[in-house]
């Protein structure tokens, strides 16, 4: 039996289930009002040793939020998340193509989850 905490969070069979949204950023910005999400970069040619910021507007985010983010794809490059900066109502994911010589030749995907500490004000 699932325990539903609200429309965005539930636990079923020992698995945490979160509302999840997916979308492609537009000029390195996107709005996703869910505690978890997938962002497909609009950048398909991130140069070697170059960073890029993606601004995510999200009502679940607080300046005290813990945001876990991972990257997949990017083709020839080696894209990694190097920093996530939360603020009230949004966060910035900074990615880096860590490859010393190859630019990305495809879009990359960032997946994230927002965790708000229990002693912080609710959503």
Between the first and last Cα atoms, what is the distance in angstroms?
Answer: 25 Å
CATH class: Mainly Beta
Structural class comes to: mainly beta
Q: CATH fold name, please?
A: Jelly Rolls
The coarse overall form would be elongated
Q: Compute the average pLDDT.
A: 85
Radius of gyration: 16 Å
How would you write the strand order of the largest sheet? 4-6-11-8
Instruction: Report the helical percentage.
Output: under 10%
The succession of helices and strands, N to C, reads: EEEEEEEEEEE
Low-confidence stretches: none
Query: How many distinct domains?
Result: 1
> Which percent band covers the strand fraction?
over 45%
Tell me the major beta sheet: 4 strands, mixed
Please identify, by name, the CATH architecture: Sandwich
Q: So how many helices?
A: 0
Features:
123 residues, mainly beta, 53% strand, 4-stranded mixed sheet, Jelly Rolls
List strands and helices in order, with pairings.
Elements: E1 3-6, E2 9-12, E3 15-18, E4 20-24, E5 29-31, E6 36-40, E7 51-57, E8 66-73, E9 79-87, E10 90-97, E11 108-115
Parallel strand pairs: 4-6, 5-7
Antiparallel strand pairs: 1-2, 2-3, 6-11, 7-10, 8-11, 9-10
